[in-house]
TrEMBL record:
Domain Xylose isomerase-like TIM barrel: 19-242
Species name: Mesorhizobium erdmanii
Name this polypeptide is given: Sugar phosphate isomerase/epimerase
SUPFAM superfamilies: Xylose isomerase-like
Keywords tagged on the record: Isomerase
Length: 295
């Protein structure tokens, strides 16, 4: 196992992110799934310069992106988006994409169970065909019930992966599984060898080590099933707007270089644009919590 991180949680130049994570012992990055944002030739050069490899990318299912949409045109555009993310990862020598099948924040179905299952399976199969072509693995990620209605548990994600191909896998997220699973360790064991990625944030979605999750036991269970991929940092710190705030200086009051879409996506996760100091501390705490367990 090695330590990785997402970068969608704060709008900043990629070079700034890479400098920060390198000094804390991160080995790779799961880059934001926005292919138009990254010129792969320049991004490859930056990664090489800082000694960080691309582990993969996560699909940012905002706006109209939805593989389970009733509208065929919307599904087709969503499939093309996923294909573009796969191509980007391939050009960056990455290994996986984390696929969230439905729009984040959408909690109302578009059709019957049978209709939606056919739509999402057919769309994911088309994405998988492209993934095989470009040499990148797909890991289906379940989210908690307040972010999506469709895939909330590992067993559900595994059912979609099974319907697509034995070579399609699953990504589990410590934050989400501690909300949704009957037993988080059994959930990891059930996915087993099909676990392609593992995201980390504590039960309060701060950095690993700042909540109630038993990280030594989580890492032990991952080792038990033979997982040897990334522990990918994905804290999305909730903003406290009251006098009780433990981190009163966590919010950047004058953000720059962030699109309205990205800002909304972050705010929809209960967070905001975080100050560099607070964000850096969260990166450091995650590394200090997890690196001793995996080295």
């Amino acid at each position: 196992m090695h330590l990785s991180t997402h970068n969608w949680m704060r709008a900043e130049p990629l070079e700034t992110t890479l400098k920060r994570i390198k000094k804390f012992g991160y080995e790779s990055i799961e880059i934001s799934g926005e292919p138009e944002q990254y010129k792969t030739k320049e991004t490859r050069a930056l990664l090489k310069e800082h000694g960080i490899r691309c582990w993969g990318a996560v699909t940012l299912m905002l706006g109209e992106r939805n593989l389970a949409a009733r509208n065929q045109g919307q599904r087709e555009r969503s499939v093309q988006y996923v294909k573009d993310v796969l191509t980007m990862v391939s050009e960056l020598d990455g290994e996986i994409i984390t696929l969230v099948p439905a729009t984040v924040g959408k909690v109302v179905p578009d059709g019957t169970e049978e209709e939606e299952w056919k739509w999402v399976v057919d769309a994911t199969r088309e994405c998988f065909t492209h993934a095989k072509k470009v040499g990148v693995k797909i890991a289906v990620e379940p989210l908690n019930r307040f972010e999506t209605y469709l895939f909330n548990r590992g067993a559900q994600a595994l059912a979609l992966a099974d319907a697509v191909s034995p070579e399609c896998g699953v990504c589990l997220d410590a934050y989400h599984i501690h909300m949704e699973e009957f037993n988080v360790h059994d959930a990891i064991r059930q996915v087993g060898k099909r676990l392609f990625d593992f995201h980390v944030a504590d039960n309060n979605r701060f950095a690993a080590g700042l909540g109630q999750i038993d990280w030594p036991r989580i890492v032990a269970t991952l080792k038990e099933v033979g997982y040897d991929g990334a522990l990918t940092n994905e804290f999305v710190a909730p903003v406290d707007r009251t006098p009780a705030a433990p981190y009163p200086d966590m919010v950047e009051r004058h953000p720059v270089d962030i699109s309205p879409e990205q800002l909304k996506f972050i705010q929809d996760h209960g967070s905001s644009v975080l100050t560099e100091k607070f964000y850096t501390d969260q990166m450091r705490i995650t590394a200090e919590t997890l690196l001793p367990l995996i080295k």
